[in-house]
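Hi D.,

Good news: the full-assembly prediction came through. Inputs first.
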Amino acid sequence: MPVLATWNVNSIRARLPLVLEWTGRVRPDVLLFQEIKTEASGFPDMEFRSLGYQSLVVGQKSYNGVALLSRLPIHPVMTSLPGDEADAQARYIEADVAGIRVIGLYLPNGNPIGAEKFAYKLAWMDRLIARAKTLLAEGVPFLMAGDFNVIPTDDDVYDPKAFASDALTQEETRRKWRALLNLGLYDAFSLSHPDARRAWTFWDYQAGAWPRDLGLRIDFFLLSPRLVDRLQDCGIDREPRALEKASDHTPVWCRLEDGQ
DNA sequence: ATGGTTGTTGGACAA
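Then the structure:
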C-alpha cells in the first residue's frame, strides 16, 4: 500500500527543518517536491538519505526545480517534458518506482494573461497532454502529481470574481485541463471526497489568507485508469501550513493498493 | 487598498 505525496515547498533550503520533520513522521514511500529553487548541487540529499530516501533532482538556480524522493529504488525516465528542446525551465520529472510511472510537475503559473508567460503555460499544457496520450497508448500505469497552477472550477477558489483575470481560471486554461482529464485521467482527491468543499491546497502569504481560510485547490494527483482501480484514499494535510516558516502550499497525499 | 508577503538575492522578479 504505497503512499505518495506532493508538496510545493517554495524553496527546499528555506523549508528544510519543517519538511524533514513532516517526512520523518509521515514517511511516504514517494515524495514529489516542486519549487525547490536550487540546482541539484544545492539539494540536501544527505538529510533525506538519513531518513531512508533516494533522490532524483531536476534543479534550477533561484526558480522552479522539482525533485522525486523515494524509499524504493528510482528508475529515471525523463528530466524534462518533451516537445520543446529550447525549454530550459526545471518543471518536470518522470521515473519508474515500484512498477508505477511517477511524474512530478510544476506547471507554469502563466500570469499575466495575454503575454508570453500565458502562451508558455498553454503550450506547456499541450505538451503535457501529448505526453499523457503517449503513456496511455503504451499502456503504462502512471500518475501525474504536483502544482498544476490550474483552478479547474469556481468551486476550487475562495472568490472566483477576485480571480476572473488570473491565468489559473481562464477558460483556455480550464479547457486544456479538461482535455487532459478527458483522455481518461482521474483527480484522486475528487474521487475519494466527492462532496468536499473548500479543500484548498494553497493559501497566499498575503492579506491573512491562511487565518481567513481563503485558498485555492491547485495541487493534484491525476491517475491513469489502471491506477484508479488501486486508489484507496487521497487527502490534503493542512497541518504544515499552520507552522512558522510554512510554505504557501500544503502536502497532498495518495494511498494505492499494492500492485501485482 | 494598482495593496498585501515570502524567497532568492543583494535589485528586481516571481508567485
